[in-house]
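Materials and Methods. Structural model of NACHT domain-containing protein. The 633-residue sequence of NACHT domain-containing protein from Fusarium mexicanum was retrieved and submitted for structure prediction as follows.
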Amino acid sequence: MPLPPAINLDARRTIEKAFKDLERTVSVNDRIDLQDTTLDDVRKAAHLVEDELAARQSLRNMRRLEPLFTGLEYYSKTIEVLCNGTPYMPWIWAPIKLVLKISSDYVEAFEKIIKVYGQIAEPLARFQKLNRAFYSDKDVQQTLATFYSDILEFHKEAYQFVRRGSWRLLFRTSWGRFQRRFDGIIQDLKAHEKLVDKMALATNIAESKGWRKEMRQKMETWRQEQVDRMAKEETEEVTRQYLAITSYLKVDESVNAKIFDAIATEAVESVGTSSWILNQSEMQGWLKRLPSSTFILLHGRPGSGKSVLATQIVQFLRTSQQSLTMSHFCTYAYEESMDYDKLLKSFLLQLIRSDKDLIDYVYDILLRKSKIPSSKVVEALILDSVRASSLDPSRTRYIHIVIDGLDECDQATQSRATKLMKRMVSAAFSSGSTICKVLLSSRSSPAITKAAKQSQIVCLSNENKNLEKAIEAYALHRLSLLERELSQLQVTPGDISDLSCRIAKRAEGMFLWARLVLDYLANNMFLKREEILSAPEVLPRALQQLYEKILTQITSHFDERSLERIKLILEWIAFAKRPLRKAEFRSALAFSSGNPDTSELAPQYLFDRCSPLIEERSDSTFAFIHVSLSGKQ
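The predicted structure was written out as tokens:
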């Protein structure tokens, strides 16, 4: 009995890798349909598609695929030894059945796919003339395995193309990119076809072993260079398109990043005080990759820490990398952050940023077709992008959206933005492949509540226990930084713990009030232990009264000129169109005297005198510590 042919284990591993890569891409339901599919099944499916097209008066000649089926039949015989005992063999033809069925609903796409599939036939025809002894050779097996890898890569590209969300919408703009990828695979198949020919001529020559190995290595190097070159060109083209879109929309993406970073910095300074929100029951349902809990309103009073909680949620989602996470933070400090058109454009860019096909689609609509980016146009692009956002046919795509401070916008913007979010949730659901989840963090607002009917509400006033624990931890951290000074007043660690607890209870969920009390303790001079310990009860409970007390304390020894200067600083922060950087602010204060010949900037210590009502952000701009100070609530 003759021994079975030896198997090249590297070749088997190449086939296994290609198979698993395609298997991961294909959805579970499609995987079940494809397994055990025979070549005859694919032939029958092609004829069935032909009959269906004829019934729709869109007859297409499916006989063009017969050379492909014949080539695959001959090729399958060459890799029998490599595929024995595995599920690998049917996957060289099974995906064709599915791709033809899906694409037949769109005749223009179907025609192009038929043509590229037909091109595979030519390199496969060579296998009709090879004898069994040839493809039992281990060196030849490695080249045969590369054919398998290329064919499955071809199927993967075709499958992903027709299985992604709204693929018909993206067909015209994306086909060129897919055509280049298909061409690259076919080029590789043809190169390996020539290598097989050369091996066939030299297979009986003992000295050819070294030559074949060298040729195969050169081929692999060339192949990788082709892949790298194509990837580089594609990346450069997409980057150019994205920058052109950003320029056309006139969006400064750094604004949203600055706002987020400023709030995130505040969260770092109070580390551990906002993590409780991730374990809150309604919020856990919203964070999970489940189709439930798609729309949540996070309500809280001014100063309750909503923005810090929102950044904590965004950072958690981004770290987990389980979904596309989008965010927008509205604040009076940056007027454009409250503009509806700017909000729209920000979300559009966040949606398409990591998706080459969506970038190409938006570039085509806005720049190739020169459409004016009106609210209506951008809204439509956002909804199209949501429907088409699913990249992986085997997994549901999740989009998490966080908007903070929407109540700082006018009521029309509140209503329009909320309604758009609802439409995005519906658009994702209708795609069948994407789930969109929205979190709006704001004060209770009739405009938002009305537009977000039947949404879940997480009210911070119902989370007093969590907030009290968080504020107590924050107060304990802040007071521990003053331990050296406090010990000189005979304030013990037990006193600090008790003081933290009393600050947290009296704050009643108001992080801002606790912060102001702690700033008061950090910035004032005390002679007696009781002055420290009585602060929570002595200081006004209402924010407005506390602001007045702090301002009175700051200005109590100011002369008239100093009062005018602090007033000027506060007015610049309140009414400037955008936050001023330190150098700009110092220049503005210097020239406020009305003397155009001023050569010196105002001193930096002026800003320190306004603490704790204002703060310098990480980007060197100044802002009030909270929107409630601006009078723009």
